[in-house]
Design brief:
about 140 residues, single chain
Amino acid sequence: MLRRIELMSGLATGVLGLLGWAYAVFGPTSRYVGSAIRSNGRTTTVSGSTSVVQRSLEPLGVVFFVVLFLVVVSVAAVAYRHSRRRGKAALTILWALTSLLWISVVLGAASIGVLLLPAALLATITSVAGSLARTQE
């Protein structure tokens, strides 16, 4: 039963993590407001939303999003592998990936961290279920 919980929550972590990642990258995550004075003296206000893709992103930001993508996909893959093969190394990697996901949530708490919170919670459930299943063997 714990292996099934580990597998399902691991796969759900991957799906929710990728959805949160996709919204963080492609969704309207920032707003802008600007104004301009026309030649006739009238003022025009412009406002809207942009995504990370539409803005210029610093190289460190690109690295952050790529690493985050790899962590989310890896949690699902390692959870699948551990639920099938029950290796101690896979469980250690799963806990390390869960920790990296939580670090990403904390570092991005003011912006995209909230979008990753469901995936981080499910990754924790995955890791705990994997650990409990290992102790029952």
